[in-house]
Design goal:
Elements (H helix, E strand, L loop, with lengths): L21 E3 L1 H13 L4 E5 L7 E3 L1 E5 L2 E5 L4 H8 L3 E6 L5 E7 L2 E6 L35 H6 L1 E7 L4 E5 L16 E7 L2 E10 L3 E6 L11 E8 L5 E13 L7 E7 L4 H21 L37
Antiparallel strand pairs: 1-10, 2-3, 2-6, 4-5, 5-9, 6-7, 7-10, 8-9, 11-12, 11-14, 12-13, 13-16, 14-15, 15-16
């Protein structure tokens, strides 16, 4: 049974999708999917709509005969897909929710070429080093006698026919979550070599985050970039990041404090994926604590200042990569 409806970033139920935002026709649907691939937008796949099995990927190939997504290195997710009759994909390029359904899915494994011949592999691991993953190049290549190396180079690809339709929901909402207190999530600001400040994270999305600063902290100017920052939690999670200031707001919950909203800036694809996986992990835990329904109450509301503003038209220069929009 699907439990994705409890997720603020998950797929909308079929009956809740507004026909006004439906895009039909193979050519039009392919164009939207190709745009997601070109922008390297993160796509969250929900096998049969299940949020507990959701994982983050990217589209690596779009053609008349179908669409391909990379599921390499995600064994549990690949197993869920093999047993699923369909999967729902959700992406948020520029905070526009794009949702589609994949059916008749097939998974294939191949050994990626690592022979250094200069042709380049498809960037199916999301690290930003490849050619954008626009074709099948790099899936085939010479094998390796070492089983360890073969496993490390294994590429798993999901193939499915191009959907008959998809939805682009033209709305601007704050798709973000609040880290629970037990995570003790902080943003570490580097002041200088050997000098750092830690700020509590209020909320987080694949596009950015917001923090709480005390009255004694200097407020960053809009557009200011924090380089060499990182996200840290009590579970030893450490995610490096660069942040660009979106806005500074009074924080009514703490006297004299203010909250600062940031967008992620020039983040490598694999780092953005780690952020999105943390967001999904927070949602899963919240949903289980709340008994599945109602977890969306923990998500940011439209109009509140916070990470949801990251990636909007207000962002100075936009994100470093469109894939960061989540």
């Amino acid at each position: 049974m699907s439990n994705a409806a409890a997720s603020p970033t998950g797929p909308d139920a079929p009956g809740a999708l507004n026909p006004e935002f439906r895009i039909e026709g193979e050519f039009a649907v392919r164009a939207v999917l190709r745009e997601l691939m070109t922008r390297r937008a993160l796509v969250t796949l929900y096998p049969e709509g299940r949020a507990d099995d959701a994982f983050v990927t990217r589209i690596v190939h779009v053609a008349p005969d179908g669409v391909e997504l990379d599921v390499s290195g995600q064994t549990r997710s690949a197993a869920a897909l093999r047993n699923a009759s369909y999967a729902v994909g959700v992406a948020f390029p520029q905070n526009v929710k794009t949702q589609f359904r994949l059916e008749r899915m097939e998974l294939s494994d191949a050994i990626a070429r690592r022979d250094g011949d200069g042709d380049g592999d498809s960037d199916r691991d999301g690290d930003g080093d490849g050619d954008g993953g626009d074709s099948d190049s790099g899936q085939e290549g010479a094998g390796d006698d070492s089983e360890t190396k073969r496993a490390a180079q294994l590429v798993t690809t999901l193939h499915a026919p191009v959907p008959a339709e998809l939805h682009r929901l033209q709305r601007r909402e704050s798709f973000r979550v609040h880290p629970p207190p037990e995570d003790d999530a902080h943003c570490v600001q580097r002041i200088a070599i050997g000098r750092e400040l830690r700020h509590p994270i209020i909320d987080l999305s694949a596009g950015g985050l917001s923090i709480r600063m005390t009255a004694a902290d200097a407020r960053p100017a809009r557009g200011r970039i924090w380089r060499h920052s990182r996200i840290e939690t009590s579970s030893s999670l450490v995610i490096p990041c660069e942040l660009v200031t979106q806005g500074v707001y009074d924080d009514p919950s703490v006297e004299g404090a203010h909250r600062v909203a940031f967008a992620f800036h020039a983040m490598p694809g694999e780092t953005v994926r780690r952020v999105q996986m943390y967001v999904l992990d927070i949602e899963r835990r919240r949903r289980h604590e709340d008994g599945a329904p109602g977890a969306s109450e923990h998500a940011g509301k439209e109009g509140e200042p916070g990470a949801g503003s990251a990636g909007g038209e207000d962002a100075p220069g936009g994100h470093g990569r469109d894939g960061e929009d989540g």
